[in-house]
Amino acid sequence: MISSTLNTSALLDKMKQELTDLLAKNNKTDPLMIGIHTGGAWLAQKLHQDLGIKSPLGTLDISFHRDDFDQAGLNPKVQPSNLPCTTEGRHILLVDDVIMSGRTIRAALNELFDYGRPASVTLITLLDLQQRELPIQADIIGGNLVINPDQIVKLTGPEPLALEIRNRSKD
Predict the structure, then answer these.
(1) Residue 169: CA atoms inside 13 Å, Cβ hemisphere, count?
(2) CA 156, 125, 90, 27 torsion: positive or negative?
(3) Half-sphere exposure of residue 10: CA atoms within 13 angstroms, side-chain side
(4) Helices in the chain by DSSP H: which ranges?
(5) Which pTM value belongs to this model?
(6) Angle value at C-alpha 140, between 136 and 146, nearest 5 degrees
(7) Which of 18, 126, 150, 170 has a C-alpha 20 to 30 A away from that of 28?
(8) CA of 62: how far to CAs of 4, 32, 46, in Å?
(9) What is the pLDDT of residue 5?
(10) Can you tell me the distance from the alpha carbon of 89 to that of 129, in angstroms, rounded to the nearest whole number?
C-alpha cells in the first residue's frame, strides 16, 4: 500500500543547483557521473542530461559487494557495471536514490575502487533517511525524510521519476 508520493522535481532542481555550485567552487572539470543500479542510475541519467556533462555516463551494480550477500543471496536483477572510461585520477559523481544506513554506498565504493583510484568521489542522493550505521554522508542531498520503521522509500521510474513511501510487506 502506498502511503504518499513525494515531489521529485523540486528535489532534483535543488540537487542540480547545489551540484553546479559545488563543481564550480572546487574547479572539478569533466567529472565522471556514475549511477548505482537502479534508482541511482535513473537519477544519474536525468542529472547527466540536465547538467550537460560531457563524459559518458557510467552505471554500477554493487550486488557482489553487499555485506548481506550471504544472507540475502544474489539479486535476480544483477546487471553488469558499465564504466565507460577509467576512474583513475577522475573526479567521480556517485549518484544513488536514497541513503539510509550507508551500506549501499560502502559497497559502491568497494566496486568503484576495483576499477582504479579516483581523485575524489562526490556522493549525490535524492533523499537522506538519516538512519546511518556507517560513517558515510552525502555531499549533495535533495532532501531529508524521517519514516516509520514499518515503511520503505522506493524510487520508481525511469519515466516519470517518483518517490513513494510504502508500508513494508509483512511476508
Answers:
(1) 2
(2) positive
(3) 5
(4) 8-25, 39-51, 69-72, 103-113
(5) 0.89
(6) 70
(7) 126
(8) 28, 18, 20
(9) 57
(10) 31
